[in-house]
């Protein structure tokens, strides 16, 4: 944002308050005091008053990044790019930073490059260059396209449907993504999962098995095939794939969460509970699936009060969870 910026990335915020905007000012003050819940409350009110103001959207995204709600932050940044991209080019770096935290390194590199193309001498140019250097080792960029905004919109929409088990809605979007963004690893794994739960089990298993043959160390393939094999009653194959996950503790929180959920979905509740306890809640709480499967695991190992507490908190943060069966059903 090369003109009249209203925030400073991370700790320091120097607001230039639009005239009469009381809610925005209160939100910035709360953020400076690291009262993130209060900051979100005030910024929401500001956005309700002026929904189209990109400054409010950007400041809100910074708060969500600070608490680890990277997907939510990216949704806001995408809106800003759609409406005022030429005036808010810092959004590209902020997206890159969020994707790096999510472990989506191809996405992080792509947005960092976009930022440098638009702002070669910008405030974040050194940070963007360092980020690219960090993720540049062993990354294949063949899948990258110039349709960056379109990709992000697809990804965030699909994420919402997957979290809510809306397979019928997720599947056609993922089919489009495999055509528009071929070669992206997470898209292909999400696609095979959506295929499986949409009734195309054989196709999903074949697709994921082929991917594992191409990359025998793919944790995402082991995750999907462990779940598929368990659901289909093929215990021998299930044990083979789940064993590949037992001694693995990835650095990226999103992948660690997927492994914890896999243990829960295949009734290894004690292992799942242990994995959930090791997650950083600041990040995991942004996932409906975290509360759902953590609660189920707690209940199944004899911690009903913990299960109820998790379920109630999850329903408050993710209203869609209340529409699903609780762990005691």
Order of helices and strands: HHHHHHHHHHHHHHHHHH
Largest sheet: none
Oligomer: single chain
CATH topology of one domain: Serine Threonine Protein Phosphatase 5, Tetratricopeptide repeat
Q: Report the uncertain regions.
A: 1-10, 137-146
Task: Report on this structure.
Among the domains are: about 20-135, Serine Threonine Protein Phosphatase 5, Tetratricopeptide repeat (Alpha Horseshoe); about 250-329, Serine Threonine Protein Phosphatase 5, Tetratricopeptide repeat (Alpha Horseshoe). Helix 2 (about 35-50) packs antiparallel against helix 3, helix 9 packs antiparallel against helix 10 and helix 10 packs parallel to helix 12 (about 220-230). It contains 18 helices and no strands. With about 325 residues, the protein is mainly alpha-helical. The protein is globular.
